Request: fold
Amino acid sequence: MMQFTVSDDQAQLLEAFQRVTREEFPASRLISRVESPLNQDVVKWPVISQLGWLELLLPETGAGHAYSSVDQCLVHREFGQCLLTPVVLGSMLGVGLAMQAGANVEAQAIMAGRMKVAPAIACERHGGRPAVGDRFYVVGLSDCESVLIWNDGGAGLFTAAQLTDITVVQAVEESLGLHRVTLKDAKPQAWMASAATSQQATLLISAQLVGGAQAALDMAVAYAKTREQFGQQIGAFQAIKHKCSDMLARVEVAWGQIMMAALSQGDNGLDPFHVSAAKVLATDAALKNAAANIQVHGGMGFTAECAAQLYLKRAHTLDLMAGPGREHHLRILASESPV
Amino acid sequence: MSKKNHLFSPEDERFRQQVRDWLEASKPRTPRPSDAQGQREYDLGWQRTQYEGGWAGIAWPKEYGGLGLPLIRQLIWYEEYARAEAPHVGASMVGLNHGGPTLIVRASDEQKAFHLPKILKGEVVWSQGFSEPGSGSDLASLRTKGRVEDGHLVVNGQKIWTSYAHISDYQELLVRTDPDSSRHRGLTWIICDMKLPGITIRPIRNMVGDHHFNEVFYDNVRIPLANVVGQIGEGWSVAMSTLGFERGTAHARDQIELSLELEKLIAYAKVHPGPDGVRPAIKDDEFAGRLAMLRAEMSALRSLVYTMVSRIEKTGSPGPEGSIVRLYFAETKQRMTRLAADLLGVAAIERHRVEGLSALDYLNSLRFTISAGTAEIQRNIIGERILGLPRGK
Ligand SMILES: Cc1cc2nc3c(=O)[nH]c(=O)nc-3n(C[C@H](O)[C@H](O)[C@H](O)COP(=O)(O)OP(=O)(O)OC[C@H]3O[C@@H](n4cnc5c(N)ncnc54)[C@H](O)[C@@H]3O)c2cc1C
Reply:
C-alpha cells in the first residue's frame, strides 16, 4: 500500500518550508496594500531563488534531492496557505520546460532568479498551439521577463516582445498585477508538445487551492474558539461547529484526491482523470471554505482589513488559472472508469 | 417578466402603467458618481425628484407627506422601479426602508412631523447605529451608554459596521440607559443628530474595496431627550420593529431586481459560448439546469414577498416570517451571482463588467448572509419563533 499519510521525512521537509513561509510570507503582508502595485513577493525574489524553491520540480535538484510528486504537492499546499504569488509557480514550471526544450541558458537564468516567469491564462480555450491573435490574461507581467502559456496540447515560454495590446486590468484579486495581452508572434522560445506541463500545473494549483482551504479553516476555527456572543464561544453553536467540520471534511476529501493524482504518475505522466478530479474538488474546498470563513467572522469577515477575503480572491484566481470547472467535468466523464 | 399575471386588479394595473410612464420619463440618466459626497447628492436628488413627481412614500401616511396608499401599491412601485432600472436606493436606504417605517409605528407626532417629510423630500440621510464590536448577533448585550442629564441623553461608547454613517444626518441609535440592566431591558432607541459634537467616524473598507460602512465613536454626545422614540427603557421593542422592516419589506424591490438580473444572465448564456467553446452556454446541461432552477426560485421569491405584503396588510407586521424572505433572498442571490461568475469563464478574473456581469457581484453577495442578522440568526429565529423549537443556550 502506498503512503497516504505524511511520512517523517515529508513532515521535516514541510517544517523547513514553514519556517520560511510563516516568517517571510505571512498573510498580513497582503492586507491594506490592495492599492499598492508592488508585488510583495517579487521583492523577496532573492530569498526564493536562494532557497532553491525555483528548481524544486526538477527530477534532480542541485542539492541532489529529488522531490516526488507528493512532496511537490505538499510544498505547494504550503505556498497556497501563505498565498505566495503565482509567479513562483510560473517560474518553477518554466525551469522544467526550458530544460526539456534544451533552452539551458533560460533555465539557468530562472533558477538564479534573474528571469521570472509570468503564468498566462488563455481566453480562447481551443486547447491547440497558441496562435497569432490569441488573447491571454497574464499574472505579474510587469515583474517578469518571460510568459508561460500552457494547455492540453503543450506548453511554451514567450517574451513580452511577442505580445501586443498589453492592457492593465483590475483583477478581482487586487494584488495580482494582471494584464490582458494578445499574441502577435506565436513562435515560442521553448515549446513542449505534451500535456505534461498542463497536468502538473493543474495538480500543483489544486494543492495550492487546498492550502488556501486549510488556511481558511484554521482561521475560522481559531475565531470560533475566541469570539463570544450570547455569553459563549461561537464555536459552541452547532451552526458554526458544523460549518467548521464541513470545512475540514472538504480539505480531507480534496487532499485525498490530490494524493491519488500525485501517485498516478506513470511513464505517460499524471493520469488526466485523477488530475481533473483533484482540481474540481480542490476548487470546491477552496471557494466554499473561504466563503464559510468569511461567514464565521461576521461583519469583520466582509472587510478589507481581515485576511479572510484574501483566500476567497486567491481561490477565484487559481480556479480560473487551472481552467474553468466545466472543462474538467467534461474530462472526468471522457475518461474510462477509474475503478 | 413580460408575462401578464392576474394577481392585480385593473385599478392596480392602471396605477402600474402610470408608474411605468413616470419612471420612464423621469429616472436619472447620468451615472451615479463614485465619491461619497457625490453619491449622497445623487441619491438625495433622485429622491427629491420622486417627491416632486408625487411618488414618494406611497404607503406612508398622508399627513407626513406620503400618499397613504395600500402596501400593494408600494410593491407595484418597486416592481416598476426595478424594471425601469432606476438607480439603487443608495444612501436613502435606511431612512426609507426602516428608519421612516419605525418612526411611523413608534414615534411621537412631533417626531413624525419633523422627520418623515425630510426623508421623503430627499433632504436627509439616515444610518443605523445598532451593532458594536462586542455585540453583533447578540445585539441585546450592547454596551454603549446613555446617561440622562438635564434633559439630555449623554452618550459614550462605540458602534461598528454603520453603513452610510460618513454621509448621514441622523441615526437610529440604540444605547443602554439603565447601567444596572442586562440584555433586553434598559435599552433606549434615540434619534441621533450626526452633526453633534463628540462624534468621530472612522471609515472601514469592505472586501470589494468600497467604503460603505464605518466605526462610530461617541464621546459625551448630548442628545435632547425629545429625540427618544418610544419610552426610555423600551428600546428593544422599538429596535425589533426596525429589524422587522429591515428583514421583511425591504426585499420588495430587491427580489424583482434579482429576477431581472437573472433574465440578463439567461440572455447572456444564449449568445456566449459555453464550456465547449462552440455552443452557447445555455446548451450546456449543467448551466441550463442551474438557470432553470434559478428562474423557478425567483418566481417563488416573488411569491414570498407577496405573502409578506398580505400578512402585513392583515396583521400590521412582517412577523418572524420576514426571516424566511431574508434568508431565501440572500442565498438565492449568492447562487445566482456564483452562476454569473461561472458563466463568464476565465473573464471572471476581471472586475470589469462584461455585459453587466462581474464576478465581483458574487463577492459582494456574501454580505447578505451577514448584515441585518446573519443566516445562522435567521435560522434560529425561524426555528424558535415560528416552529417553537426549544431555544439553544
Ligand atoms: C455590509 C454590512 C452592512 C452592515 N450595516 C450595518 C448598519 O448599518 N448598522 C448596524 O448596526 N450594523 C450593520 N451591520 C452589522 C451586522 O448587523 C452584523 O455584522 C451582524 O449582526 C453580525 O454580527 P457580528 O459581525 O458581530 O458577527 P458575530 O455576531 O460575532 O457572528 C460571528 C458568527 O457567529 C455566528 N453566530 C453568532 N451567534 C450565533 C448563534 N446564536 N447561533 C448560531 N450562530 C451564531 C454568526 O452567524 C456568525 O457566523 C452590517 C454588516 C454588513 C456585513
Remarks:
- The mean pLDDT of chain B is 94.
